[in-house]
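User: Structure please.
Assistant: Input sequence and predicted structure:
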Amino acid sequence: MSNDSKEKQDKDNLTAKKKKFRYTLFSTILVLILFAALVGAWFYYQSDMGTLLAIKEPSDISILGPDGAEMSSIDLNYSKDEKTGDQVTVKRVFCVQTSADKHLLEIAHTTNLKGLTFNIYKVSDDGKETVTDEGHTYKYDKTAIAGDYLNIYKTEKDYKYANDTYHYKNYERNDQVQIHAEPVYWLASQSLDTNKTNSIKNGKTYRTYYVCEVSWTETEKETDIFYILAKIAE
């Protein structure tokens, strides 16, 4: 092979590698942007409608995980002990940290998982049930916090479907959205008392713990995004 031919081949290989890298990078960025846009859209609805807001410092309320650890979303990965047949049930602990007397809770999630249901229970020292999450054990009673979905169109063949009540708050009018990517919102029926027996920061801030129990029927490997939002009750 002549030097000119070899040089041309080396350039072609380098160009191909650059293109491959560029396509890979573009694909990765595209996924991240879509994910960020979806999450941002949910929170746009919250701030626009004034129901509940995404909480960020220095707000006087935040959602944290077991033992007050930082948490941005509920992890729905599960072990074999959390599956019976094709039914999966996971229990995850979170807490609301605030100095307010009362607060509100809302759940936002997509609807890819078949038969997705959830319950939220308040942790109590007198509870008859126990759950261990991230090495911390909590007691609770199976009396679920009452609430309702705000934008359910129908439930068919064990799948939930959102109506278009908030579609135009989340997306542009002509945006085409996969039906199970349209988030549904669940709001607690009433404000919840802050547990003032569990204080931090010189007794001026409190942590109220909850157990979130999520169940679904496993079919194929699907993924849902599941968020918990909180707001100080006025």
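Confidence is low (pLDDT under 50) at residues 14-58.
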